[in-house]
């Protein structure tokens, strides 16, 4: 359903840039978006009603049971039989089987009615009676719980704010560039003003500084080394729980860090410069905003598709997920070359490739870290691995692409007979503005793909094995333990 919604938004965005919508058409498109948003809730309600009807039908199909017993002949007068269809008149034990288990009813020298006491419960009656946290909620119980509402609001604020910041990053950089230029001009005007003289107190001599005893420092250091580094080079098998230091100092994590640096760093650099790329190639402003929207939508497609496609390939043909990471690094290489050597409408194609590959890489990074290094320290290891993304973005965006863009812009200023101080901001127009920059980005992406092939080779045998066997064994052990505990409680 979410894929349909994303595809619909992409089509509407493209049509909106090509045609002028009336107020009625905007209202109809918005109403359809709202319907698509709430359609999954209708499916949930339908499934709950079907489940409730199935349980009710199963309870109604239980046949009535009639038990007849004969007393030995005696001189005692016979008691009149009760009108009930299911009666036990002597000391008997009646066992009735139903869908929920075995209910034992005992009667001693008394009449016992054995009709089914269970009453079908509506699927809505337990909506506001959720179980304890950690137990299995029904779908409606989870959707109407305060915890889900809080998570929903937090996701809107966090993810929505982050995406808004990413979409406006180009304009933010432009405004900050103007502020920086004006600050430099003011600083140059104030260079002739004498600066203040600050007198600092001299530092204490080394003899007066209190130092701890050397022996105590050595003991503390030895204790820390024993606690942290004792098993750092005794790594477990792939898939088992690594400690943080074992994972961070492993070759697999190093390869993954380099691949993430190249892939996510180049993708973020392309996203941040998308507005200026469109401007340099002569696209109108409303078309540039379309590039950003398309990249965001295809980023979502990449996140969704990478999970189930890689899972299908792994289960059916034992294709390692690391190979999917390699393919995800090749796609932005093509996109970077399309920007470096543009043609008519090339930025549309490049935005699709780069956005899709960015979503694939980020999702596969989650999965690969959890599968190779275990789940015990997953959150810490993922954050450490993701540090390569902002690091790559800073080096490639600021130090490489930014400098080369400014160099080309200064060349254009000199050809016009202008200097840097005569303009507020540097603007470069033409295909040559980003050509060298994106050739470098394409080479970096290709290098990351080649490095990730080493990880593919190292993890090939691991992914050919049953990587979920450990989890199934744990589930079976837990089930056996529960079966052993349940008779004891009875």
UniProtKB/TrEMBL annotation:
Residues 248-463 form the NFD4 C-terminal domain. Signal peptide: none annotated. InterPro entries: MFS_trans_sf, NFD4_C. It is a multi-pass membrane protein. It is found in: Membrane. One of its GO terms (cellular component) is membrane. The chain crosses the membrane at residues 26-45, 244-271, 322-341, 347-369, 438-456. It comes from the Eukaryota. Keywords: Membrane, Transmembrane, Transmembrane helix. PANTHER family: PROTEIN NUCLEAR FUSION DEFECTIVE 4-LIKE (PTHR21576:SF110), UNCHARACTERIZED NODULIN-LIKE PROTEIN (PTHR21576). Belongs to the major facilitator superfamily. Phosphate:H(+) symporter (TC 2.A.1.9) family. This is NFD4 C-terminal domain-containing protein.
